Amino acid sequence: MGADLSYPQVEISPERTYIVTGGNTGIGFNVAKEIAKMGGHVIIACRNMSKAEAAIKQMQEEYEKELKEKQERVQASNRAEPKLLNVEMMEIDLASFDKTMKFIEEFKERDCPLHVLVCNAGLATASKVMTDDGYEIMLQSNYLSHLLITLHFLPILQKSGDDARIVNVASDAYHFGKFDPRNLNCERSYGNLATYGNSKLFQIMSTLWLSRHFKDTAVSITSCHPGLVKTQLMQGTAMGRFFGKFNPRTPLEGAATIIKAATDPEFKGVTGVYIKDCKITSTSSYVRSAEIEKQLIDYSLETLSKYLPQNLKDYIDYEDQGSA
After folding, report:
1. Domains (ranges, CATH) in the chain?
2. Which residues make Cβ contacts (< 8 Å) with residue 174, sequence separation at least 6?
3. Mean pLDDT score, 221-234
4. Distance (Å, rounded) from C-alpha 32 to C-alpha 23?
5. pLDDT number for residue 323
6. Phi/psi-derived region of residue 109, left when phi > 0, alpha when psi is between -120 and 50, beta in every other case
């Protein structure tokens, strides 16, 4: 692949909590498992609880198998007993603002710290699908609901120590997206690659906006491109068939950049960057357009205004935008 997809095996305190949305499958499954193997407390936030339960069982089984194989290779005399991975699950449906808020409130009720939020869950649809809230499903699930979670959890991250992080799993597919106020909700046209690209473009642009406007720089906010990965995400879509021709990575290879962004001590305090192949890289000039960014944030905050924290301006430094 021509890329060094490596990340350090760091020792993570069991007191350090990570939320991984969509952690029951694909990239998110591997992110959650690898962080738990390092010692972290991981919460996978998923829509389907039976699949989440099965995923946690699979993580444990894979970990024990990997440990056994490693010990057999080195013929270790003092073989460590496998630990119980500290992974639990919470329910979330990103295609519903009410259900996303239910997840947010349930986590807040725990009154526990949050050190890293990995906004990983995403979907790609072959045809246009509208949510019950009236939004195109990729726009809402991939972008708007993750932004809503982020805005609510920023104060929790802020209180959780000097190394809190938000990692947005984006994609180079953002190059296919654009901010068109006349077609944000696919009112005029729909193309699955363009619409998916929009959701990832908006995710990256909001990352940059947040990195500048959040008042506490101790919380780093980054976005990552996992590469072309063979997952369930694009099965049955034209873009999945198209990208499938380009020797896609395994889910673990795709997870490497996200794991590095979430755990590597070298990324402590590094904010407002785009990470690809485990390295910081540049984005297009379109992503950095101040005019387009303002239009996007105006739209986003107005769309989410009903669900935003009442004290948002206490920790986000921004001018009045829309009705938010």
Report:
1. 17-314 (3.40.50.720)
2. 197, 200, 201, 203, 204, 283, 284, 287
3. 81
4. 6
5. 38
6. alpha
